[in-house]
Amino acid sequence: MYVVGVSACPTGVAHTYLAAEALTKAFEARNHQVKIETQGASGIENEVTSEDVEKADFVILTKDIAIKGEERFKGKKIVKIMSGVAIQKANGIVKKLEEIQENQK
Q1: Which end of the chain, C or N, has fewer beta carbons within 10 A?
Q2: What residues make up the domain containing 86?
Q3: Using CA atoms, how far apart are residues 61 and 65, in angstroms rounded to an integer?
Q4: Which of the four pLDDT bands, split at 50, 70 and 90, describes residue 18?
Q5: Which residues are catalytic?
Q6: What are the tens digits of pLDDT across the range 25-84?
Q7: How many other CB atoms are there within 10 angstroms of residue 29's CB atom?
Q8: Helix and strand tally (H, E) in the chain?
Q9: Which segments constitute the PTS EIIB type-2 domain (predicted)?
Q10: What does DSSP say about strands 2-7 and 33-40: parallel, antiparallel, or unpaired?
């Protein structure tokens, strides 16, 4: 599975980066490819490219605040979660997406 995402929070500091880190670790631990863009106090980092979007099975967006460039994910399977949920339940998110993908086969 290949997952891309964008993490952002109102202050653009802790939750933005903690959510990105939690999701990355959880997906990599299950041998999935993942790329999480952060939109934080330092600007946009690890930017998700159009090539990333094209090959992505799922897109994860934190919904704490509006995501810059959200329109680039149009037509993809999008999961919107709060950054706190991403931090606390990253493993559960991975398992749920695995189930969805398995059921689509």
Answers
A1: C
A2: 2-103
A3: 10
A4: very high
A5: 9
A6: 999 999 999 999 999 988 999 999 999 999 999 999 998 999 999 999 999 999 999 999
A7: 11
A8: 3, 5
A9: 1-99
A10: parallel
